[in-house]
Amino acid sequence: MPDKKYLFLPELPKDSALAEKVIEKFFQKGFMTNSGLCILIEPSEDANNFINYNLRKNFFQSCNLICLPKNSINAEQIVSQVNSLIVTNSQSELPYIDAAKKFYREIFHADDFLFTELQPNPQVQNVQQSFENYFLRRYPPQDWEYFLFHEGMGESIAVFYWMAEHKKFSNKKILMICTNKMRGDLMAISPYIDAVELIDNHSFDWISIFAAEKYNIKR
């Protein structure tokens, strides 16, 4: 299946919850593939809140975000560069729907669209299986707290201090998950960190996006 490019036109704040669902669905199928989701939103305070929320969840790693007045964009030009249009039935979408019809692009409603045509990257499935079969069994979340660390030396010193403070209020063991061996070795000398695991960047991104909220993994 060739890579697909999608254009999504949520109207905020009305479509905020729906937009979250579409982004999550795309990540479940399109993460670490060459398929892309372009999100076009109008500048506003609601747009700022939407962007900040999704930045915290790392949801924009595989999405392109355009924050411009829709009437300032050439609808035909942008629609001609994608395969499919995802709509929410707002009036501001009409020029894009007309362009999609002109260029014979697929049109889907956000409520019903599941990205079923996308094939997940096998590497993503391997990362998920590794996390479930190795991490969750070796470090049961009821006994361990997971921390993701992906920063430099200065932040390492701050982490040492924060872990010492955190241990005063938590009886759980602490697992530090790193992408850099030097940082991992540094974390391992801390008396407040009980285990350190090294993973690659793709695994780090997957855990950060898909598992962090579910298992209360701190970053």
What does the secondary structure layout of this molecule look like, with pairings?
Blueprint: E1 5-8, H1 16-30, E2 36-41, H2 45-56, E3 63-67, H3 75-79, E4 84-87, H4 94-102, E5 106-109, H5 122-138, E6 144-149, H6 153-166, E7 173-178, H7 181-188, E8 195-198, H8 201-211
Parallel strand pairs: 1-2, 1-4, 2-3, 4-5, 6-7, 7-8
Helix pairs in contact: 5-8
Query: What's the overall geometry?
Result: elongated
Helical element count?
Answer: 8
Content of β-strand: 15-25%
SSE order, one letter for each helix or strand? EHEHEHEHEHEHEHEH
Description:
With 219 residues, the protein is of the alpha/beta class. 42% of the residues lie in helices and 18% in strands. It is built from eight helices and eight strands. It has helices at residues 16-30, 45-56, 75-79, 94-102, 122-138, 153-166, 181-188, 201-211, and strands at 5-8, 36-41, 63-67, 84-87, 106-109, 144-149, 173-178, 195-198. The strands form two sheets. Strands 3-2-1-4-5 form a five-stranded parallel sheet, with helices on both faces. A three-stranded parallel sheet has the order 6-7-8, covered by helices on one side. Strand 6, helix 6 and strand 7 (173-178) form a beta-alpha-beta unit.
Jot down its keywords.
alpha/beta, elongated, 3-stranded parallel β-sheet, 42% helix, 219 residues, 8 strands
